[in-house]
Design brief:
Elements (H helix, E strand, L loop, with lengths): L1 H6 L6 H38 L5 H28 L7 H20 L5
């Protein structure tokens, strides 16, 4: 118990509170950015789904899943940074990877599939 208290961070330390404020401000930025992108993607998908013919809706489900996997990790990163501090930054890695994968798939569709 003594070692735990001895080597734990001093919660009243001004430097520690500055780090918490920085993490909290970055958390707000990531949550705002993530929620903005996510709501835009959802609004576009719902609008497209309303105009889509019924026989094409099953293929559209894959596009919805890809869009959600590309945007939700950024929202999770903001929430995790608020809760866990700097550990929430680990969620930015899957956010970037999924965003690139979705962009590559979209580029593939535009480049190859349209020419068929």
């Amino acid at each position: 118990m003594y070692l735990l208290l001895r080597f734990s961070p001093d919660w009243s330390c001004p430097r520690f509170s500055q780090l918490q404020e920085k993490d909290r401000s970055e958390s707000v930025e990531y949550r705002f950015l993530g929620l903005t992108i996510w709501t835009t993607v959802v609004a576009l998908q719902v609008n497209h789904l309303r105009k889509l013919e019924p026989e094409l809706r099953q293929k559209f489900v894959i596009r919805v899943i890809l869009g959600q996997t590309a945007t939700l990790p950024l929202v999770i990163a903001g929430i995790a940074m608020l809760v866990a501090g700097g550990a929430g930054l680990y969620w930015l890695v899957p956010a970037v990877i999924f965003a690139f994968l979705v962009a590559f798939l979209d580029a593939w569709v535009l480049l190859v599939e349209i020419n068929r």
